[in-house]
């Protein structure tokens, strides 16, 4: 059971917009800790996608964006493309565990 | 180019010891955290712990405290993850990743991993 809760799967057709939620608590997202998102393409290492809620590293398309509301965060992908099919993970810090935590991951399927 | 190069795949028997490595290059190794992440077959990412090579300050997830040891040799820009007695349940892919941490402009604390190694597969089987 992950400290951060994500839906196991989401799907969308090419060109559509999908969102992935990440629900935490007052000891992580709801506190003073930023949320970050990673993309893991099949058979590869994770890659940083969004850091500190809505910042993109160089090279990440602006189709990807993040947001936060209360004890939850969300990743939005606009203009879905076939190459976006991957697993997505949120990550934050948890004060009760005194360490970093990941969400359980969400598998995105492009129909 | 900033990169982390991890050691090769390992096949071990239960009870054996193991030390895998992660060598950084292209940046000041002593100025960034190195974190370790486990991914069991078909499962999600689990944060294990991290080390600051500059002073060897290390922290562990409660789930991994006492199960593994994280160390670093800054003279050769290399971090390590070590087991003294492997179990079959240690079978997984292990990633190292460069960590960035601090206080943002909003006053929030951040810690994220911006550069990842390709991973080391560890298989423990009798």
Overview of the molecule:
The complex is a heterodimer of chains A (111) and B (126). By secondary structure, chain A is mostly beta strands. Chain A has no helices and 9 strands. Chain A has strands spanning 9-12, 18-23, 36-40, 47-50, 64-69, 72-77, 86-94, 99-102, 106-110. In chain A, the strands form 2 sheets. In chain A, strands 1, 3, 4, 7, 8 and 9 form a 6-stranded mixed beta sheet that branches. Chain A has a 3-stranded antiparallel beta sheet with strand order 2-6-5, with no helix packed on it. In chain A, strand 3 and strand 4 (47-50) form a beta hairpin. Chain A is globular and about 40 Å long. Chain A starts with 8 loop residues before the first strand and ends with a strand. The relative contact order of chain A is 0.33. The model of chain A has no long low-confidence stretch (mean pLDDT 95). In chain B, the strands form 2 sheets. In chain B, strands 2, 4, 5, 6, 9, 10 and 11 form a 7-stranded mixed beta sheet that branches. In chain B, strands 1-3-8-7 form a 4-stranded antiparallel beta sheet, with no helix packed on it. The termini of chain B are far apart. Chain B is built from no helices and 11 strands. With 126 residues, chain B is mainly beta. At the A-B interface, strand 3, strand 7 and strand 8 of A face strand 5, strand 9 and strand 10 of B.
């Amino acid at each position: 059971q992950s400290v951060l809760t994500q839906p196991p799967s989401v799907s969308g057709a090419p060109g559509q917009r999908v969102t992935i939620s990440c629900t935490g608590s007052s000891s992580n997202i709801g506190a003073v800790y930023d949320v970050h998102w990673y993309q893991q393409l099949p058979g590869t290492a994770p890659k940083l996608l969004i850091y500190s809620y809505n910042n993109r590293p160089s090279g990440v398309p602006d189709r990807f964006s993040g947001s936060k509301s209360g004890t939850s965060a969300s990743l939005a992908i606009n203009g879905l493309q076939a190459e976006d099919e991957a697993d997505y993970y949120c990550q934050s810090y948890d004060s009760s565990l005194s360490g970093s935590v990941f969400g359980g991951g969400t598998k995105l399927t492009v129909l | 180019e900033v990169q982390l190069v991890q050691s090769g795949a390992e096949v071990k028997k239960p009870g054996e010891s193991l030390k895998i490595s992660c060598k950084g290059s292209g940046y000041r190794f002593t100025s960034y955290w190195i974190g370790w992440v486990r991914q069991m077959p078909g499962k999600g990412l689990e944060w294990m712990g991290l080390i600051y090579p500059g002073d060897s300050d290390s922290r562990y997830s409660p789930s991994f405290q006492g199960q593994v040891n994280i160390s670093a040799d800054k003279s050769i820009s290399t971090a390590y993850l070590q087991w003294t007695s492997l179990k079959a349940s240690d079978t997984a892919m292990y990633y190292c990743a460069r960590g960035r941490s601090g206080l943002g402009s909003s006053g929030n604390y951040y810690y994220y991993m911006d550069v990842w190694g390709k991973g080391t597969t560890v298989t423990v089987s009798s």
